[in-house]
Amino acid sequence: MSTIQLGAANFEDTIKENEVVLVDFWASWCGPCRQFAPIYEAASQVNTDFVFGSVNTEEERELSAAARITSIPTLMAFKSGQLVFAQPGALPAPALDQLIQAVRELELPDEDEAVDQSTADQDGNR
Question: Which of the residues 50, 61, 83, 120 has an alpha carbon 20 to 30 A from that of 70?
């Protein structure tokens, strides 16, 4: 699967409806963004179990602000609708591969377990 364009209209649904989504925030004038783009695109071709999205920060200023993007490129990873990674800077291919593997192997607690733990934490603080 190749990279899909994300914007305000489809960002939230894409995150919610897919198990794992990587998002690259970029701009056309950004040199590191242009260097990272082919690495990101190549990874999207190999890792078809992930959704790879791109947000053009120039066209999607409100979305970029809501995501608190202060430097580009910024890469974010979402798993089961939760943000599990966010880091500015272009990654070399081996580092991106390591990130993809780490996100793939990451086990998140069930929502019921997370709620139970949250309730236990609150009860313990009373």
Answer: 50
**Residue in 33, 51, 76, 103 annotated catalytic:** 33
Contact 59, 22 (CB under 8 A): no
Let me know if 30 is a catalytic residue. Answer: yes
Instruction: From the candidates 20, 21, 30, 55, give the one annotated as an active-site residue.
Output: 30
Whole-structure pTM value: 0.84
User: What span, in angstroms and rounded, lies between the C-alpha atoms of 94 and 67?
Assistant: 26
The total domain count for the chain is 1
Per-residue confidence of the chain (126 residues) as pLDDT tens digits? 679 999 999 999 999 999 999 999 999 999 999 999 999 999 999 999 999 999 999 999 999 999 999 999 999 999 999 999 999 999 999 999 999 999 999 998 876 554 555 444 555 554
CATH of residue 100's domain is 3.40.30.10
Instruction: Say whether 116 is catalytic.
Output: no
Residue 85, number of CB atoms within 10 A of its CB: 14
